[in-house]
Design brief:
With 537 residues, the chain is α/β, with parallel strands linked by helices. Helices cover 36% and strands 13% of the residues. Among the domains are: 80-338, Aspartate Aminotransferase, domain 2; 340-455, Aspartate Aminotransferase, domain 1, CATH 3.90.1150.160. A hairpin with an 8-residue loop joins strand 14 (415-417) and strand 15. The structure holds pyridoxal-5'-phosphate. It holds the Pfam family Pyridoxal_deC.
C-alpha cells in the first residue's frame, strides 16, 4: 500500500472504483476538501491527521500576521532554540512538581531572578508565575483585600466596603479584579494633558477602607510611567500605611534596563507587590506572568493552599491549577540566554526605534502623546492635531479611518478614544516590540504617509461606503455561533465600567487583544469604528 493511504476507509466519489481506499495524502483530492469544516457538533467520524492539519492551517491563514500586529505588547518572536525547548515541554503539566521537579526548580530560579531585578529583599520576598499579568493582578488584589480585612477584623471594624484607588488609565483587568472580588473602584482621572495618576489626588482619596493604591509602570494608553515614588512619599508623609501595588505588566522588563536609576520597585518604601508579564517585554510567547510580594506579611497565609494530590506536599497560590510548563521554561531560556546585557541592548534599541518613529510622525504633522526619550514604554501614541493645534482644514477622516487604511496594508494599529472629558480625544498606538526593527519601521512610516495621502484624496462619500463595508464584513465573518453569544445578547447594553464611570475619562480603549483577544472583547472594535465614523458622515 502506498504511504499515506489509510486502509479501511472507502472512497466515496462516484468516479472511483467502489472498494479502493481513499488517498488522504492527496488532501485536496479527498472528500474532506469538498465539505465545510464541522462547526457545532463534534463529527461522528475521525479525520486523518494530515487532512485535519491542512484544513485548520488553511483556515488560520485568514488571521493577521502577528509580526504586523503592532496593537499588542505580546511577544511574537523567540529564537529557534527557545521554541524547541518549549515544544519539548509542551506535554508537561507545570503544577505537577513531584513529576517535574526540575521544571519547578527552574520556576523558582526565574521567580528569584525577577524578584532581584525588582530589588526585592533577598530573605523575605516571595513570588509565583501566572498565566499573565491579569492573573497576577487578581492574586495581588486578593492578597491586599484579605490583609485589609484581617487588620479590620482585629480592630473589630466593619469589612463590607473595601475600595481600591487607581488612575482611569488602568487596563481592563483592574476593573475585572475589582468587580470579581467586590471592591469599590475609586478613580483618579486623567486629563487632556495628564495621562497618568495624580499622586496627590490618589493619596487624598484614601480612607480606612482603602485596600491599596495601584501605580502603573507603563500605561496601556500612552506607555507613561506613573510616579510610584511620589505616591509612596506622600503616604509616608501622611503616616498612612495604605500599600502600593505596581502594575509593571510592560515596564517591569523595560525600566530596569533603560532607566536603572528610576525608583519604582521594592526600593520604594510603600510598594508591597509587583506584577509583570513575561510574555510582553519579558520576551516569551503568551502566556506567562509573574507576581512578587515584598514579604509573606503581604500575602495572607490562608490564600495559600498546601496540597499533596500529586505525590508531594506543595503549595499553590494561583487561580488555575493545571497549566503548561513551556512558558516558564521559555522565560528561563530568555533570562539566561540574554542576560542583563542582552535585555539592555534590546530595550535600548526599541527605545531608539520608538523615538525615531515618533520624530517621523511628528514631521508628518501628528501630535505625539507618548513620553519618548526612555521616559516611558517603547511605544508611540499619536493623533491628528486638533483645530487649536494648527490644523487648518476640516478633515472628513479620523484616526479610526487611518487604522482601517493601514489594515489594508497588513498593519494592525489600533485607534481608540480617550473619552468624554478629554473631548472624545482619539488616538492611535504603535507598540515597538523586539521584532520591529528599524527597517520595518521605515516601511511603516512610508505606509502611514501613503495611507494618509489616500485618506486626504478620498471623499466623504467613500468613508460612508467604508463604514458600510466594515459593518457587513464584521457580521459576515461571524458564521460560527459565538459561545459567548448568549452573554453578549443579554448584556447588549452593558458598558465597560470605565465608560460609565462619572468621574472617568479613559473610556474606550480598543487596543491590544482586540483582534486576537477573547470573545468578550471582540465586539468592541466594530462598534467603535462605526461610532467614530458616525462623527463624520
Ligand atoms: C498595564 C497593564 N496591566 C495589565 C495588563 C494585562 O496583562 P496580561 O495580558 O498579561 O494579562 C496589560 C495588558 O496589556 C497592561 O498593559
Amino acid at each position: 500500500m502506498a504511504p499515506g493511504v489509510k486502509a479501511g476507509v472507502k472512497r466515496r466519489r462516484a468516479d472511483d472504483a467502489p472498494d479502493s481506499p481513499e488517498d488522504f495524502s492527496n488532501v485536496y483530492g479527498s472528500h474532506f476538501a469538498d465539505q465545510d469544516l464541522p462547526c457545532d457538533d463534534i463529527p461522528d467520524e475521525s479525520m486523518p491527521p494530515e487532512v485535519a492539519y491542512r484544513m485548520i492551517k488553511d483556515e488560520l491563514s485568514l488571521d493577521n500576521n502577528p509580526k504586523l500586529n503592532l496593537a499588542s505588547f505580546v511577544s511574537t518572536y523567540m529564537e529557534k532554540e527557545a521554541e524547541d525547548l518549549m515544544l519539548e515541554a509542551m506535554s508537561k503539566n507545570f503544577i505537577d512538581f513531584e513529576e517535574y521537579p526540575q521544571t519547578a526548580e527552574i520556576h523558582h530560579r526565574c521567580a528569584n531572578m525577577i524578584a532581584n531585578l525588582f530589588h526585592a529583599p533577598q530573605d523575605t520576598a516571595i513570588g509565583t508565575s501566572t498565566v499573565g499579568s491579569s492573573e497576577a493582578i487578581m492574586l495581588a488584589v486578593l492578597a491586599m483585600k484579605r490583609r485589609w480585612k484581617q487588620q479590620r477584623q482585629r480592630h473589630g471594624k466593619p469589612i463590607d466596603n473595601p475600595n481600591i484607588i487607581m488612575s482611569s488609565a488602568v487596563q481592563v483587568c483592574w476593573e475585572k479584579a475589582a468587580r470579581y472580588f467586590e471592591i469599590e473602584e475609586k478613580y483618579v482621572n486623567c486629563t487632556r494633558t495628564r495621562f497618568t495618576i495624580d499622586p496627590k489626588e490618589a493619596v487624598e482619596l484614601c480612607d480606612e477602607n482603602t485596600i491599596g493604591i495601584v501605580a502603573i509602570l507603563g500605561t496601556t494608553y500612552t506607555g507613561a510611567y506613573e510616579d510610584v515614588k511620589a505616591i509612596s512619599d506622600l503616604l509616608v508623609k501622611k503616616k498612612s500605611h495604605v500599600p502600593i501595588h505596581v502594575d509593571a505588566a510592560s515596564g517591569g522588563f523595560v525600566a530596569p534596563f533603560v532607566l536603572p536609576h528610576l525608583e519604582w520597585d521594592f526600593r520604594v518604601e510603600r510598594v508591597v507587590s509587583i506584577n509583570v508579564s513575561g510574555h510582553k517585554y519579558g520576551l516569551v510567547y503568551p502566556g506567562v506572568g509573574w507576581v512578587v510580594w515584598r514579604s509573606p506579611e503581604y500575602l495572607p497565609k490562608d490564600l495559600i493552599f498546601n496540597i499533596n494530590y500529586l505525590g508531594a506536599e506543595q503549595s499553590s497560590f494561583t487561580l488555575n491549577f493545571s497549566k503548561g510548563a513551556s512558558q516558564v521554561i521559555g522565560q528561563y531560556y530568555q533570562l539566561i540566554r540574554l542576560g542583563k546585557a542582552g535585555y539592555r541592548h534590546i530595550m535600548c534599541n526599541l527605545t531608539k526605534t520608538a523615538d525615531y518613529l515618533a520624530g517621523a510622525l511628528r514631521e508628518l504633522g501628528f501630535v505625539i502623546m507618548s513620553e519618548g526619550q526612555s521616559q516611558g514604554l517603547p511605544l508611540v501614541a499619536f493623533r491628528f492635531p486638533s483645530k487649536d493645534e494648527g490644523e487648518t482644514e476640516e478633515k472628513d477622516f479620523d484616526e479610526f479611518a487611518l487604522a482601517h487604511y493601514l489594515r489594508s496594508r497588513g498593519w494592525v494599529i489600533p485607534a481608540y478614544t480617550m473619552a468624554p472629558e478629554t473631548g472624545q480625544m482619539k488616538m492611535m498606538r504603535i507598540v515597538v516590540r523586539e521584532d520591529f526593527s528599524r527597517s520595518r519601521c521605515e516601511l511603516l512610516i512610508k505606509d502611514i504617509k501613503l495611507c494618509r495621502q489616500h485618506l486626504e484624496q478620498d471623499s466623504n462619500q467613500f468613508i460612508k461606503r467604508l463604514q458600510e463595508h466594515v459593518r457587513r464584513h464584521t457580521s459576515a465573518s461571524g458564521k460560527i455561533r459565538d459561545p459567548m453569544g448568549a452573554a453578549k445578547a443579554a448584556f447588549k447594553n452593558e458598558r465597560h465600567s470605565l465608560q460609565d464611570h462619572p468621574s472617568c475619562n479613559a473610556a474606550k480603549y480598543s487596543g491590544g487583544g482586540v483582534f486576537f483577544g477573547p470573545a468578550v472583547v471582540l465586539p468592541r472594535f466594530p462598534t467603535q469604528l462605526q461610532s467614530s465614523f458616525a462623527v463624520h458622515v
